[in-house]
Amino acid sequence: MSKRPFLIPFLVPAILVAVIFLAALAEILQYSFREFIPGSLDVGGFTLDNFARIYRPVYFKAVVNTFVLSLATAFFTLILSYPIAFALVRTKVEWVRTLLILLSITPLFTGEIVRTYAWMLVLGTNGFLNTMLLDIGIISEPVTFMYTRAGVVIALVQFAMPVMIIILATAISHINTDYEKAAANLGARPWTVITRVVIPLTMPGIISGFIVIFAWTMSAFATPQLIGGGKVLMISNAIYLQGFSALNFPFAATLSVIALISAFASLALMKLIANRLERQTAIH
Amino acid sequence: MWRQTLFWVIVSCILFYMTIPAIVVVMTSFNPGEILSFPPNGFSLRWYEKALTYPDFRIAFRTGLIVALISSTLALVIGTSFAFLVVRYVFPGKNLLEGILSSPLIIPHFTTGFGFLLLGAHLNLNQTLTIIIMTHVVLVLPFVARAVYVSLLNIDPNFERSAANLGASPFMVLSRITVPLIIPGMAGGWLVAAILSLTEFSASLYVTASRTQTLPVAMYNYIREYTDPTVAAVSALLIIATMLILMLANHFLGLRKILAIDSH
Fold first, then answer.
1. Which of A13, A47, A75, B109 could form a disulfide with B202 if both were Cys (CB 3.0 to 4.6 A apart)?
2. In chain A, residues 87-146 whose CB comes closer than 8 Å to chain B
3. Per-residue DSSP letter, B38
4. Which residues contact A97 (CB under 8 A, 6 or more apart)?
5. What are the pLDDT digits (tens) for A170-196?
6. CATH number of B54-225, picked from 2.60.120.380, 1.10.3720.10, 3.40.50.12500, 3.65.10.10
7. Can you tell me the distance from the alpha carbon of A85 to that of A81, in angstroms, rounded to the nearest whole number?
């Protein structure tokens, strides 16, 4: 009798899904080399013109914008998530722990549209934030958050925090607290314990969290679409514009290929930098 | 002592930032007028009435529910069996298959959606439930597989070994020992998959049409046309439903376990 009795029946469905997914990706690749026939959804023969078009400033700018916004989002998400993750792991009060986990995880499951819509209500010219700031008297004129990069980042960071908190909390829960006690006993001040012991020990979590959020933000669509309102263009929005307004599927496919390549390339680059960092900060 | 206080003040401020959008949505949903104002100048349930009777939302919610139930269940079956293979067997191409099936976590949803839009057109399945379900299975599969994978790693292999030594067939061991032990992981994975499918937007926007749109897509279309708080009422209902489901999941399964925060 076979030593792996479930191999075939368990393997077939997984392979089927993988093949379907690869077929979908292959369709994009195939379309990216096809000629666009204006006014028709059918495509022409083989061409490289689509790839020549991406050097136009507007698309180049969208790629750069995507990169910059993703970097900024990953950075602010890290800063804001660390204290929450730390509190979540270290609090000894059960209800605080439950409250922290519910409040910080719920946004993950409400979806892109609900969250983006909510931020539109907060950030709008007559929205919650402007009304509050005007009432308190901090500002005398409404501040424009909508249709700005700052507004998009404010919303994206909140969107990304649950995932970062999960990753960081896992890393923090793996620390052996004896290290912190030892440092404190040797006279280290609390701040020193945090920066010299806790943060270095969680460096792998920090790095993987940063990379995950960076990749996650590169694929944001609804937030830049609605809060950016066409003024903040990420690759995702450029693709949608080409596909659904211009109905130029071949060029939308080309931009998708570019999005894929830049996602994988920047991930590879960040992994490379991360490996260096990790080697430098590792405690020997 | 003051350090402690300062720390909790910071934590509270960050939590406030995380929850303020949800609070504002709920406040807005009770706003009596069409024009939003803060604080609301009254209390009204009219937008809830509109949200619950608006045909587009009703149909979209039903479609989304069907899609979510079928795709998360398919993902549960496929993901569980695949996680079992990954943990227990060695076979050629294992890493490659693992890489392909977990890549939807990195590949932007809009790319996946666009690919399935083109594939659907090719197979004459464009914007049908079949292609929407295929897309969602691909997107949620990594989450189920991961949850089951963690549960499988935590099983003591001696249980399975002793059952086999006592003469249980491989199928008996699987159905009587292994599956019951990983049920919490399977349940958690299925729940996460179903919620993610229900709320998925970017890929769904590409693969659905107005007949087959899911709730987030219908909400997006509404936001682009109207500015009244109907979507706030739908959002408030979704946020409250999500919180209730998570509280139940936390009670019965333990969120920290589902999310693998204590996986050591």
1. B109
2. 87-89, 98, 100-107, 109-115, 117-122, 124, 126-128, 131-132
3. S
4. A88, A91
5. 899 988 889 888 998 998 888 888 888
6. 1.10.3720.10
7. 6
